TrEMBL record:
Coiled coil: none annotated. GO terms for cellular component: nucleus. It comes from Morella rubra. One of its GO terms (biological process) is regulation of programmed cell death. InterPro entries: API5 (IPR008383), ARM-type_fold (IPR016024). This is Apoptosis inhibitor 5. The keyword ATP-binding does not apply. PANTHER family: APOPTOSIS INHIBITOR 5 (PTHR12758:SF19), APOPTOSIS INHIBITOR 5-RELATED (PTHR12758). Belongs to the API5 family. Residues 674-744 are annotated as: Disordered. Pfam families: API5. Residues 720-737 have a biased composition (Gly residues). Keywords: Apoptosis.
């Protein structure tokens, strides 16, 4: 900037502050027309002056109605400035034009709506905040102005981009805060209902569902709403279904709309609303020509043809389900396939699965009647279909089964046994174990996690535990673990296995505990550090194994005598074994020493992160530091757990923890997490992408696994004496379907 430009800039700013000072001091500000005009004129000078003017023009706007036109026009020019800072400041000032002059709200909302398509995030954010400010000032006028941009038959929207932006804003910003915004409640809920009803004359199916979901959430349509309110909602849905239109058997769009609306109406019919108009339409138009609706195609073929331009014909499977759910469900599930009746068409199979997931499962309460009989029927159909499914399909079916009443909280033990049996069958626990079969191992781990909730509810985990004890734990380091879409180390799945073992250990029987304990002890010894040999320590491995050890030993305390020298006095001769167990005490001391050193460094790291957070400027930097702090906290929880579990083991007559006093570190995490760190007592470096040792794409863990634990790894990485991160060859993952096609 030249000296003359800087001088002009300074002059304009001084003039602005002079005008503002005069206006601020004036008792009757409306007499200072020249000062306000001066602010408007100065808004056409330098960048800094424009930014200041964008604040002052709306501040004094209400005092000069004769200058309202030039003031708004000048402010709009500032909104169109090239300089982002000027634009943002001008946008922020827009709500002030309406603070004491509400007649301008509609115009200002219109201006802001046009700005919803701004490319810069900070600009869009300013627009959102300005609109929210207007909604707070006058919710009725602001909503009315907003909904005009959605359009109706009388006032169609002329700009589809703007319409989409307004819909997104209403969905994401307005609807979630309805409780704070819609006051007085009944009056404003009625107002927004009327606005929505006007907008429903020209909407897509997805938009209609969005609006209906919102209306259902309003207090005026709540559980205590009178019958006329349910009648109103049914009337809205009937209008959308176009029940007054002439029916055409080949009009796929109309049939699609009719069936979707019929599903949408079901909850209100259950609450007492009349379904007469729908039933009359079905009786008059659909049932007499039922076979013609499907035309010459089978309904399942139509599920495929539905997406082919020029050939779209609608499948009336939903109507068939309503008419005869037993027969229709049985016919549908045949197309999923089983070992006895394999599906021959993969495209049709996928379409049927999608239909069942998206259309059948969500309305199970209305569809499966009588409840117990139909829930048993669909359970049997699902069980037959599980012999050849992918991992995702199996999880989908299990989630559905868990939601059924026959497997609910009050279900008898045999129902839990049935679910465990389904999962055991999917885990293929009768198959010969192959240490290099990554797909089977992946299936086993996933199924073990799936079984945990039922084990907690009293089902037996013996079959899983025996399989782990016999096949997995003895060859733990030889297991080739699978990979999947996330960039995770193979160790993650091994950790998943140990986590699952830890979580199931409080529910083991005495007999299972006695059988498994020896292998757990050997594995624990293996992962406790021996300083002289430089062996490694993986903190989360040790946490898992110590937790498992405590809960198993708590059930069979005398079994620890010959395993690790813990002599629980039972009066038996074995209590007086004379072996030297000094090594295990040294290993425990090594664990504690290393853990305390790591905790000290983690605590120091937390202090540094707090300083960094205070100094951070951008949201991105703060998010990064927040994640680091969370991972450090998880690492500290792991270390605290280890110390809490080693302390009672130093005594020659120890107590074993068998209650819930230890909260596993990953169970407390607020975000998904997987392994803490692999830290050695020797001199090995961690294997990472930076040093070329990590070249794998590994498997995503369950909900508490995966990416977060990699980050926790970094929180502990290098805090002791080193570390490693083993890699293995690529496995197939849980890939295709069933026994021969993988299981992702």
């Amino acid at each position: 900037m030249s000296d003359s430009s800087a001088a002009d800039d300074s002059k304009h700013i001084e003039e602005l502050y002079h005008y503002v000072e005069c206006l601020s001091e004036a008792t009757d500000k409306s007499q200072n027309v020249k000062d306000y005009q001066g602010i408007i004129d100065t808004a056409k000078s330098s960048i800094k002056a424009k930014q200041l003017a964008a604040q002052f023009i709306p501040r004094f706007f209400k005092f000069f109605p004769t200058l309202s036109g030039p003031a708004i026009d000048t402010h709009l020019d500032l909104i169109e400035e090239e300089e982002l800072g000027v634009r943002v400041q001008a946008i922020r000032g827009l709500p002030l034009f309406c603070k004491d002059t509400p007649e301008h709200i509609a115009k200002i909302v219109d201006i802001l709506v046009q700005l919803l398509a701004a490319e810069e995030f900070v600009e869009r954010d300013a627009v959102h905040k300005a609109l929210m400010s207007l909604l707070t000032q006058d919710v009725k006028a602001s909503l009315t102005a907003l909904f005009k941009h959605i359009g109706s038959v009388d006032e169609p929207s002329t700009d589809e981009v703007i319409r989409e932006k307004v819909l997104s804003f209403i969905r994401d910003k307005v609807f979630p805060i309805k409780a704070e915004l819609l006051k007085p409640q009944e009056e404003m809920e009625r107002h927004i209902t009327d606005l929505i009803k006007k907008s429903l004359e020209d909407v897509t199916g997805a938009e209609f569902r969005m609006f209906m979901d919102f209306l259902k959430s309003l207090g005026i349509f709540g559980e205590k709403a009178p019958p006329e309110r349910m009648k109103e909602l049914i009337g809205i849905i009937e209008g959308q279904a176009d029940l007054d239109a002439q029916f055409n058997v080949s009009d796929a769009d109309h049939i699609d709309r009719l069936i979707s609306c019929l599903y949408m109406a079901l909850p209100f019919v259950v609450r007492g609303a009349s379904s007469s108009k729908f039933l009359n339409y079905l009786n008059k138009h659909i049932i007499p020509v039922f076979d013609k609706v499907i035309l010459p195609f089978s309904c399942l073929e139509l599920l495929d043809l539905e997406e082919q331009p020029g050939e779209k014909k609608y499948c009336s499977v939903p109507l068939m389900l309503i008419c005869d759910s037993v027969t229709s469900l049985t016919a549908l599930f045949k197309h999923i396939g089983s070992v006895d009746e394999p599906s021959t068409d993969e495209v049709i199979r996928e379409k049927v699965l999608s239909f069942i997931r998206d259309k059948v499962f969500p309305i199970k309460a209305e569809l499966l009647k009588p409840q117990e009989e139909m829930e048993r029927h669909i359970t049997d159909l699902i069980k037959k279909s599980l012999e050849d499914v992918t991992g995702a399909e199996f999880r989908m079916f299990m989630d559905f089964l868990k939601s059924l009443g026959i497997f609910g909280e009050k279900a008898p033990p045999e129902r839990m046994k049935e679910l465990i049996g389904i999962i055991e069958g999917q885990a293929d626990l009768d198959a010969q174990f192959n240490v290099s079969d990554a797909d089977h191992i992946d299936r086993l781990i996933s199924c073990l996690y799936m079984a945990l909730p039922f084990v907690v509810r009293g089902a037996s985990s013996s079959k899983f535990l025996n399989y782990l004890n016999k096949h997995i734990i003895p060859v733990f380091d030889k297991v080739i673990l699978p990979f999947s879409c996330l960039e995770l180390l193979p160790e993650e799945r091994k950790l998943d296995m140990l986590k699952a073992l830890a979580e199931v250990s409080p529910c083991t029987t005495t007999q299972d505990s006695r059988q498994i304990l020896p292998n757990v002890v050997q594995l624990l010894k293996k992962y406790m550090p021996r300083r002289k040999t430089g062996e490694e320590m993986n903190f989360t491995y040790v946490e898992c194994l110590l937790y498992t050890f405590h809960h198993l030993a708590h059930k069979v305390p005398n079994a620890t005598n010959s395993l690790c020298g813990y002599k629980i006095v039972t009066g038996q001769p074995s209590d007086r074994l004379g072996e030297d167990f000094s090594d295990i005490y040294k290993e425990l001391s090594n664990v504690e020493e290393l853990t305390r050193a790591t905790m000290k460094k983690l605590t120091q790291g937390m202090a540094e992160q707090n300083k960094a957070m205070a100094a951070a400027k951008s949201d991105e930097a703060k998010d990064t530091i927040r994640t680091q702090k969370q991972n450090t906290t998880t690492g500290l929880r792991t270390c605290n757990n280890i110390l809490a579990m080693t302390k009672p083991l130093h005594s020659k007559t120890p107590s074993f923890i068998g209650d819930k006093s230890i909260n596993l570190s990953w169970k407390e995490a607020t975000k998904p997490s997987v392994p803490v760190a692999t830290v050695t007592t020797g001199g090995k470096r961690p294997a990472t992408k930076a040093n070329g040792s990590s070249n794998v794409t590994s498997k995503r863990g369950r909900g508490a696994g995966g990416l977060q634990n990699q980050l926790v790894n970094r929180a502990l990485e290098g805090l002791s004496h080193g570390g490693r991160s083993g890699t293995r060859g690529r496995g197939r993952g849980w890939g295709g379907r069933g026994r021969g096609r993988g299981y992702r």
